[in-house]
Request: fold
Amino acid sequence: MTITDFTDLEPLGWRPELAEAWADGGYEDAFPGARPGRVGQVDRGACTVLLADGTVRATPAPRVFRPETDRRGGPGLATGDWVAVVDDRVEDILPRHSAFVRGTAGARTEAQIVAANVDTVFVVVALTGDQRLRRVERYLAVAWQSGAQPVVVLSKADLHPDPEAAADEVRGIAPGTPVHTISSHTGDGLDDLAPYAGPGRTVALVGLSGVGKSTLVNRLSGDERLSTQEVRGDFKGRHTTTHRELVRLPDGGLLIDTPGMRGLAVWDADEGIDRAFSDIEELTGECRFRDCTHGAEPGCAVRAAVGDGALDEGRLGNWHKLRREQRMLELRQDAQARAQDKQRVRARARALKKRPHR
Reply:
């Protein structure tokens, strides 16, 4: 296949660097008959792959899940991935240009890819119930780390007495991030989101259950393709989306809807935290001591900003919290790596003991 053959894939988000990766990776030589395609949905043991001339249900090869061969920014296969397909088998995954990755829930130290090869991440927050600025900050840290452009979408604006005031409040904790108010019920603000989902551009929707992600997908796609439910009377969300799906839009863009997240653990998000809290990061450079912890040290520019009202105490506390989580993750990863090394050494020692003496 020549590069000119790839033009049929452009509506799916194909870009020149993918053509280079395809040629450099030697996929056609390694896997005769291979074709590039994009993962539209991942199920247990199989996935739907979008091709230039249709779709195919494919089974991933074992190598796709081997950590030692991973060169794509995270483990496994994800919705939005570009893959090399031979007949009904996914043989390999092309390098990702972005990936929204979170830590798994529970005690396991593992990464979970929510969406891959995304241009824009819509952080959807409902303007009903509590306005949870700290949660928005967490989502923005992970979104910035993904390599995509985050955008805060404040949904259900028709149910809020002053949506613009709420938007201004969010803008105060979201430097460098566009903030839009919308109502999927009335259609207000939806036109402002259209430029993010232009031809060949991919947008991922993330947020809690019940914030209106599925309804937004239906409105943008012009089709009731995803089921929706009324939010409960206490404004608690209901789970509607149960899987991640790549949806093609009438104007040529693509959307990835994701299940609601009760929790969002950071994963290797140092740079993302820097971007989400750029105002605090700038202040740290003005502290008297380079190793300032922003507690009781004299000459702390961060604490001074809190004292004069320029920086919210809650925002600083959330910054400290995310930094601690990132540090604990790094410590767990180090401990896990050491344990794996010990296991390999022990396995090698056992193998040597079983060899006959020479």
